[in-house]
UniProtKB/TrEMBL annotation:
Residues 77-179 form the Cytochrome oxidase subunit II copper A binding domain. PROSITE patterns: COX2, COX2_CUA. It is found in: Periplasm. This is Cytochrome C oxidase subunit II. Coiled coil: none annotated. Its main location: periplasm. The chain crosses the membrane at residues 21-45. The lineage of its organism: Bacteria, Pseudomonadati, Pseudomonadota, Betaproteobacteria, Burkholderiales. It comes from Paraburkholderia denitrificans. Keywords: Copper, Membrane, Metal-binding, Transmembrane, Transmembrane helix. The keyword Metal-binding applies. PANTHER family: CYTOCHROME C OXIDASE SUBUNIT II (PTHR42838), NITROUS-OXIDE REDUCTASE (PTHR42838:SF2). InterPro entries: CcO_II-like_C, Copper_CuA, Cupredoxin, NosZ/Cyto_c_oxidase_sub2.
Length: 190
């Protein structure tokens, strides 16, 4: 008799536990679906604030990224813009020169596949994609030499793809820029 009660009771316990797990799992699935729908709608309604596209096939022919326009340029507001191209397996220019204590804007694009942009000892870290212009602003505190390795696997020569970034004294930089003239684009490629 007591055995019968026991088995009846344990069957009830099992059913209750199973029900709880079922509710938990269904809830979990609903939450995941809701998250997917929410992020999908969120992205559709609020796309990245600015996307700048460019034709990778004509980079070298015309426009902002022609070879003579690559490197560091002083803007009228005193800030510096650095334009560069990433391609299998190098950056152009291979050595970037920027002043310390001045706002610097990097504008980079790729001529072929996805590359990485990273300046060691700084928080600059991005991807450089063909068809898009990647822009990042920063200010270097003090003169220093940094390495700039590609950190996205981009093919068999990936590990040999890197450039230098030389941060130099502001006055020296501005003097170099003045000497280079109006259309002067600075780099430290020798
Ligand atoms: Cu370019 Cu890895």
């Amino acid at each position: 008799m007591s055995n019968q009660i026991d088995s009846h009771a344990s069957a009830e316990v099992a059913a209750r536990v199973e029900r709880r797990w079922a509710v938990l799992m269904v809830t979990l699935v609903c939450v995941l679906v809701a998250m997917t729908v929410f992020t999908g709608l969120h992205w559709a309604m609020m796309p990245p604030s600015r996307v700048e596209t460019i034709n990778p096939a004509t980079l070298h022919v015309s426009g902002e990224f022609v070879e003579s326009n690559l490197g560091s340029a002083v803007e009228t507001d005193g800030s510096v813009t650095v334009r560069l191209i990433a391609q299998q397996y190098s950056f152009t220019p291979q050595c970037l020169v920027v002043p310390a204590g001045v706002p610097v804007t990097f504008r980079a694009t790729s001529a072929d596949v996805v590359h990485g942009f990273l300046i060691t000892d700084t928080n600059l870290n991005s991807m450089v994609e063909p068809g898009y212009v990647s822009t990042f602003r920063t200010e270097f505190n003090q003169p220093a030499d940094h390495l700039m390795p590609c950190h996205e696997y981009c093919g068999t020569g990936h590990q040999g793809m890197w450039a230098h970034v030389k941060v130099i004294d502001k006055d020296t930089f501005m003097k170099m820029a003045t000497q280079a003239g109006n259309a002067g684009r600075l780099s430290c490629v020798k």
